[in-house]
Amino acid sequence: MVILTAIIHKEEDMYVAECPEVGTVSQGKTIEEAIYNLKEATELYLEEFPLEEKEHPILTTFEVSKVMGAEKIAKA
What we know:
Blueprint (H helix, E strand, L loop, with lengths): L6 E5 L2 E6 L4 E5 L2 H18 L21 H6 L1
């Protein structure tokens, strides 16, 4: 068994799930469905292209200040 990462975001009325270690992407109407579909897609992919031994990525969050508009950046 291998533990992989799922990054999920919402696009209109669907959730999109991506596995950054493998590059597989899938979607679903719910988060659970998107993860289930991503797991299935990733398993099928790994049958053909086995995963190389890599360190697990570090996943974290960070905060940035408000993003300046393009006009303000050009003047800076």
